[in-house]
Amino acid sequence: MMTTLTTPQTATVVLLHGSASSGQMWRRYADRLVGRRVVAPDLIGYGRAPSWPAGARLGLDDEVARLREVIAADGPIHLVGYSYGGAVALAFAAQDPAAVASLTLIEPVAFFVLRYARDAAAYAEAAWIRDAFFGDLARGRAETALRSFFDYWTGAGSWEAMAPPLRQDILARAGKVRLDWEAVFAADPGREALTALTTPTLLVHGAAGPRSTTRVIAALGDVLPAARVLAVPGANHLVPFTHESQLSDAMLDHWRRP
């Protein structure tokens, strides 16, 4: 349900994973984030977290409500979210800013902010990926859906390059990935909630990442009053996996800032 990576008595760091993953994705960060209590909860339907009831609509508020139950912290947390976890982290911070000492959003799929920026092209690109994914799933072509989906996010051929057991594991989660995308497209905390969010925020994207999340980062940088942007050279959407040292150093620096 929740992986505790380190346990020193300091401000808790909460790391949220992306779709088709689990808290285990952060395992390699344990040695880098020394001196911190770091927890990596599994989001609904992933890892050891409970599945979502069949046929029930899922919203980001449901993810946030569950996180409140599983995160044991004595004070404000350093909240980090990647991809779908980034959208969840932003929803959490918008609902309860006082509970979040700092926010780090890595390639967040918070597509609603593109509407604030009137970035119709980037929003249409994300919606096209969603519609193609949903359409293939509806036709019973889950592997085709996931191949196109992953190739968009992480580069052509990335699905076929995966080890077969990993592909099978992701195929088993295709329904939850759909719920995740329904949730992020339905979400919108409101522009006023974000302009009032004075939590120090680090916005991270791969310099070679997809246009949709690159534009999300730019739009969030415009609307969040205490945000800084970090573009990681040579990285795509997989920046937490490919640039661990640079990302962990950036987070540690972010947490040390006043």
Primary descriptors:
258 residues, alpha/beta, Rossmann fold, seven-stranded mixed sheet, 7 strands
Care to describe what's here?
- With 258 residues, the protein is an alpha/beta fold.
- The protein has one domain (2-256): Rossmann fold (3-Layer(aba) Sandwich).
- The chain has 12 helices and 7 strands.
- It has helices at 60-70, 84-95, 112-116, 120-138, 142-154, 158-161, 164-171, 174-186, 191-195, 211-223, 239-242, 244-256, and strands at 2-6, 12-16, 37-41, 77-82, 100-106, 201-206, 227-232.
- Strands 1-3-2-4-5-6-7 form a 7-stranded mixed beta sheet, sandwiched between helices.
- Helix 1 packs across helix 2, helix 4 (120-138) packs antiparallel against helix 5 and helix 4 (120-138) runs antiparallel to helix 8 (174-186).
- The longest helix is centred in the middle third of the chain and has 19 residues, at 120-138.
- It is globular.
- The mean pLDDT is 93.
